[in-house]
Amino acid sequence: MKNVLVIDDDEKICWAFEQFLEEEGYAPSISNNAEEGLRRIASDKPDVVLLDVKLPGMSGLEALAQIKARHPWAIVIIITAYDDVETTVEAMRLQAFDFVPKPIDLDVVKSTLERAIRTQSVRSALPIKPTRKPPKGQRGPRLVGKSDQMREIYKLIGIMASNTMTVLIEGETGTGKDLVARAIHAGSERKDMPFVPVNCGAIPDDLLESELFGYEAGAFTGAKAEGKPGRFELANGGTLFLDEVANMTPALQVKLLRALQTQEIERLGSTRILKVDVRVIAATNQELGQMVQLGRFRDDLYYRFKRIALHLPPLRERREDVPMLITHFLQLAQDELRKPIRGISEEGMALLRRYEWPGNIRELENCIRSAATLARADVIMPDDLPIEVQTGSRPTANASPLADSLKTTLHRMIQEAIADEKKELYEEVVAMVDKVLIGLVLDEFSGNHSKTAELLGMSRTTLLKKIRQHIEEQPL
Fold this sequence. Notes:
- By secondary structure, this protein is of the alpha/beta class.
- It has four domains: 3-125, Rossmann fold (3-Layer(aba) Sandwich); 148-315, 3-Layer(aba) Sandwich (Rossmann fold); 321-396, Helicase, Ruva Protein, domain 3 (Orthogonal Bundle), CATH 1.10.8; 425-472, Orthogonal Bundle (Arc Repressor Mutant, subunit A).
- Helices cover 49% and strands 13% of the residues.
- The strands form four sheets. The chain has a five-stranded parallel sheet with strand order 2-1-3-4-5, with helices on both faces.
- Helix 6 (148-161) packs across helix 7, helix 18 (425-444) crosses helix 20 (460-472) and helix 19 packs across helix 20 (460-472).
- It is elongated, with a radius of gyration of 30 Å.
């Protein structure tokens, strides 16, 4: 039997909570002030705490801060007024699990408690301490994975690091091309020299040439009086990483090819030739071979890049790496948020492993970061994950907020029904929709049954039957 501590100075509310909790199978205990509640938490270690904001002496928010400082494992649900926005915001900032608005709706209390108990159950099955921090050299973004595909990638990185030839890294957006380029540089003899990245797709065409090759004073309108060195000069002795190289104009491709062949460049507005020693690594998420056939990319530059090519597989083709990547991103999120995360529930992990990850590793990283931020406790539950991960499909441009919200609600009801071994879920959902929709339309027409039936597209007899079934028996 799960223990629930209620901290509230209103005796009538405490009595009502006690009766309700006993009927729902919980073991309730009552404290009428925060000081006594803190002592009960330390001695009884309740599974969930229901904490009122307005208390004599120490306030609920002050108590919440002390609870989280002394007993970070405690799941605290705040009781506050509907319109008390400031209190709600502050309570969530202090890591309250959720809040129950006044006037109290016992159905809301029930669902919130059930979610809190599910979270506690997941916590108890996970390690007591967060995952051990990796060695200092392994913190921060890095390549992660032990799949056969990744082992081959590591071998190729080692081979490429041993020479200075131009490298082309191909792969979908978000597969980690930047990390591979950095790993090649870090493993080479140039590791102590500059690594200079350039996103060719993020710089306007008319500025990219000056960014790469630099310019002299007065080379064009707006040029700095003292001129500016380009990325080739800044990378001298090291590595220049040209990301999204397919976005270069044909004219700039000619200048780049010449720089690769001669290791010589000219600043815009200058006739002076500068010698450089630069190793170039290029990356693209497009099929350069197809672009060559279409005349959109120079074939001689393509073959120059293609001497050594490395293809990064999408995440959906290396699913066995997903758990390891999740652990890595959880650690990064903990460091960033300064918030311990024990792990992810089994249901959440199953959703993460089943999802297709069209955005690849970058999408997974953002997913874990957002879920860790939204998690109400030190575990990530399915509800904390993005809607597309919960439902297994990405939202389309035509998807409505109502559809997304309905998917989230129905997904949660399905999980709860499975956990509670419920039956007749369809009837429960239909009854819920009927109750809310009919109630709203009746309010809109001030209780006029004829207009309500007409808008809903049903007979007045059917409407009256549904009102008796869903509205009169279960007041909104």
